[in-house]
Amino acid sequence: MSTPAAAPPVCVLGLGLIGGSVLRAATATGRRAWGYNRSAHAVEAAVADGFDASTDLAATLARAEDARALVVLAVPVPAVDSILAAIAEHAPNVALTDVVSVKGRIADAVAAHGLSARFVGGHPMAGTAESGWEAGSADLFRDAVWVVTVDDGTDPDVWQHVARLALDCGSVVVPAESREHDSAVARISHLPHILAEALALSGAGGGDLALGLAAGSFRDGTRVAATAPGLVDAMCEGNATALLEALDEAIDVLQAAREQLADGSTGDLTRSGHDARTRYEQRQRHPITGIVPGDDNWIELLRAAGRQGGVWK
Ligand code: NAD
Question: According to the UniProt entry, which residue ranges have a biased composition of type Basic and acidic residues (predicted)?
Answer without folding.
Answer: 271-281
